[in-house]
Amino acid sequence: MRSSLLAISSALSLAVSAQQAIVTYAGNTGKEVFHDITRLSDGTFVVAGYATDLGWVSASVPRTTLPASGIDDPSGTDRVAMLLHVSSDLQDLLHVVQLPVGAAEDFRFIKQDVLPNATTNNLYVSGNTSGGYFLGRLDNNFINGVPTGFAWVRTVDATGYVKENHPWDVGSDGKVIYITGQSHGYDWAAMHRLDASGVQEVVPDWRVHWKSQGGEWYGTPASTYTDLSDPLDYSGVVFKRGGRCDLRSWTSADYTLVQPDGNGGTKQGKWPLDFMYTTPCDPNNSPVSNGPGYTGYSPGALPIYGPSIVTVDRRDNTFYLGMNLQTVLPGGEPDFEPAVVKFTSTGALAWWSRLYHEIQPNGTLVNSSPDQYVDGIAVDYSQQPGIGNVIINARCHGNNVENFWEGNSIMATPGASGFQNGFTGTSGNIHISWLGKLSCAGGVLKHSTYVAEYVEGSNNYGTPLADPNMANWPNPNTGWPDVNTTRIARASVKATADGSVCIAAVGRRTITTANAYQQMPLPSTGLAGSWNSFVRVYEPDLGLPKYSSLLVGEWDTSTGAGGGNTDLYALWKTADGIVAVGRHQEDTGNPGVAKGNAMPVANVPAWGSTTPQNESAVLAFFKASTLEDPDDGPSVSTGMDQARGAANTLIVYPNPAQEMLSVTLPGLEAGRMRLLDALGRVVRTERTGLQQLRLEVSLADLVAGPYLLQWQAEDGGMFATPILVE
């Protein structure tokens, strides 16, 4: 009976949440994806993505096609890169801005050059091309006018991490820092900065500079360069082992420098690449690139490093670089090591972090054998830079004694405990994520948690979490349960006004909260889970989720089939909830058909759709009291209460019932009634017509016990109430 009640509680949670949520598909038989979302200062949204057919957009919605001059996509596709201007309540499409068909593969990212919730200034976009990505600044921002073109645009050659992640960001000065090239290859990769006009510029304290007439100059600051007949043209940070010696110490004093590592241990080297080389490297005097370094690591076979992310702090235009390095362990095994590097606004090195100990607090030198990556960096704007933090989203492949810093071993925060302090269980060949808050001022670790959802069929669970909103889920910090691959979407990490941390991720047996829109059944129910995408918001100290919900196809809880078919890419926090965008996957074995089952929709707007028909775009707004904060900008109102009037609930009589149930419907729209048993199976279903107020439901032949009565209007609004059959 307990599992039956839990199943009913889960289904009722979805139904109640659906009254406040907006969950919709977009598109038709073509393909559509929403990649990113931003909110403008007038409360409206801009969604970036692509479609192969925009026929699903009403002809009454105005459209503008931008000229594609400057975007080089020689192979071309049938895709239309699109920006959708959406009303503040997400109910209306206000304008479609697009590129010509085949001009680019998509609009992938959209960013602003102001602090969160400040008055909108300029909008910057990037999108995939066949050979990399393009980036540019739009000439208008939808508030001062609809964009009609680019103020400037640049095509960037890129492969690997660089093409996948589009590592660029813009400061409040309008300057864009971006990375071009490849990751872990043989050719080239470098970071450059564009001025406010989109032209490469000299960065005073970077160490590699290109001269106007060709050739390079190595030195810093750039003001010490004296050849006025051949002035410096632009600067860069070069991610290639060899003569330029970038991200390495140029002097013995810097190479042998021992400094704090940010969490009670120490590290050797002023620069993050020193650890795998035997000596410093002077680019002007016989540069060398031999290993091993002081902990036994040597450089890997490929000369190009792995730059993956760039983030600018728009308060002072300092910026952060995330990357990893191909290395060789002392025993000869291949490995990858992470690094986060902070630069000042002029390009000088501020600090760097390995995110784990190279020299433990007891003085022991260690290696960290799991492959490790830096997938995302976000600035926490809830405090001033001098005392504030930056959020790191990292990932490890496998586990060992030394891995990312654990949430309950933080020297700067005695007594701290992350929601998931460490890697548990025996699963080794998996990728799991990690979140850490490091101080902006010095890279000191303040808070951390692993993000590793349970494996299906795990055991060794710990005791239930005490917080009622955690819905009796086992505490990850008790027991020793196996976990499964869990990856945070690269662009999804956001900080809210109070420092809470928002993520979108993919997991297996994902922990969900009691206030979730779509819940995962507790393992104790015996019901099967499914691979899923989920949205989670952590408390500022990463100690507990305040919201965690799935968004995935409604799978069969006896077999697990039908789910594992959504990807969420980006989030935007509002005053009363959180907006997520992404896609429903195409069935790769059946092209043109959506994979698995549809996700549960709610309050579908007129431009939306209740079902996927192919690879289909997804937009969701989740509302919960734990997410309310007026400092996160305007709220989103579905308008459902006003539209439905006072009869905003299902009324049933009698309850408990035996043979027949009389139902008063909450609105006059056409819809569908479903009666679900305690395992979530549909045992009765019936269509309701326009203007129909009442419905009689036969309970004959039903087993006594708890059930859930649902009614969903054709526009997506869902209502539910529990009943008991005697």
List the uncertain runs: 1-13, 638-647
Largest sheet: 6 strands, antiparallel
β-strand percent reads: 35-45%
Q: What oligomeric assembly is this protein in?
A: single chain
**Strand tally:** 42
Radius of gyration, Cα only, in angstroms? Answer: 27 Å
Q: Strand order, biggest sheet?
A: 11-12-13-16-14-15
Describe this structure in words.
The chain has 726 residues and is mainly β. The chain has 2 domains: 2-270 and 277-637, no CATH class; 645-725, Immunoglobulin-like, CATH 2.60.40.3080. The chain is built from 4 helices and 42 strands. A 6-stranded antiparallel sheet has the order 11-12-13-16-14-15, with no helix packed on it. A hairpin with a 5-residue loop joins strand 2 and strand 3 (45-51). Mean pLDDT is 92; it is low at 1-13 and 638-647.
